[in-house]
Amino acid sequence: MIIAQSQITLGYKHSYSETVSVKESLATRPPANTDSVPSGNTTSDELSQNTLDAPADSETQHLDVKTAQLKMLVEQLAGHKITLTSPSNLDNAPGTQNDNQGNAQARQSTTADLIYQYEESYLEHESGHFSANGQLLTSAGDTINIALSHYSERQYYIHNRFELKVGEVELTDPLVLNLGHSTHSGLDLTHNKVAFDIDADGKTDNVHFATGTSGFLAIDINMNGKIDDGSELFGARTGNGFNELAKYDSDNNHFIDAGDPVFSNLAFYQKDTSGSDVITPLSALGIGALYLGNIAAPFKVKDANNQLQAVVRANSFFLFEDGRTGTFQQIDLAV
Fold first, then answer.
1. 185 pLDDT exceeds 70?
2. Per-residue confidence at 236, pLDDT binned at 50, 70, 90?
């Protein structure tokens, strides 16, 4: 297939919302045999957004040693400074009096020097609608009408009593082809991470790999029969796979097709269920042309536990020889 003329319109509508409710509290038990605090009382610390952002001061100098140590410990766990609130202020705060009274006996009987609670409710909803419409004319004189509509939607809700997060996720960007639409995002990734040097820096990374109906667009540059690392993918090193691929558009028709010498060397690269490499030439899958035009299409791909696997950055489409279409995406894989 060689595309002689094309008139394409791409569209993308995106909606994203999230609602977060967070309550954080700290209760410290006073030192034994103290005269400064009546027996059985506890010092409770309610952490609000105002106190989270309060600047550090000499407060620790006025605390007993054990309470100061516990305060420092919780600050390390929480990842931010906390400000202690007096029990009288806490008892008078709206919505806290009954809870304090109800838990008073439990706090008096416990041997714990520290009670730290973190409660979070989180609702996240995202939808995206990608469309590609237009008409193509092949060199053989055939007219192909394009009418592709791809809708992605996900929703996640979770309620936790305690949560601790450490570190950030690094992202890297290959191009991926989706032959089908077996998931909400259209993108199939392995549940477990796979060892692969995705950024071609000589160090093995662990990433969720393309599988099922999805595969990375690859080129065996050194012709050794395998994909060695991210240098043989598109975008994994530069962050823009579409720009990398566009350099091979020798006839400047905005498609990578049989009119471009590189087309016969392009492959669909994925892992099977056993983790083995599967490298399939695009022609063997009946793929005839890859459209280089693309549109920003932000969408997070997460697993059942809401852990980030990848982020879709841009959408395009490709053509099968029989005129069918599939989605063609630039994604950021979580490393």
1. no
2. confident
Amino acid making up residue 53: D
pLDDT computed for residue 64 by the predictor: 57
The pLDDT of residue 110: 31
Percent of the chain with pLDDT over 90: 46
Q: How many residues does the chain have?
A: 335
Q: Tell me whether residue 317 is exposed, middle or buried, using C-beta atoms within 10 angstroms of its C-beta: 0 to 12, 13 to 18, 19 or more.
A: buried
Q: What is the average per-residue pLDDT within 31-41?
A: 41
Q: What is the pTM of this model?
A: 0.58
End-to-end alpha carbon distance in the chain: 37
Task: Please write the tens of the pLDDT for every residue from 91-117.
Answer: 444 444 444 443 333 223 333 345 666
pLDDT tens readout for residues 53-91:
434 444 445 455 655 666 676 666 666 665 554 433 434
| 291 token code pair | 């459209």
Angle, vertex CA 68, rays to CA 63 and CA 71, nearest 5 = 125
Contact present, 45 and 27 (Cβ < 8 Å) = yes
Q: Which residues have C-beta within 8 Å of that of residue 74, sequence separation ≥ 6?
A: 26, 82, 114, 116
Whole-angstrom CA distances from 101 to 27, 107, 122, 225 are 13, 10, 28, 71
Contact indicator for 95, 117 with CB cutoff of 8 Å: no
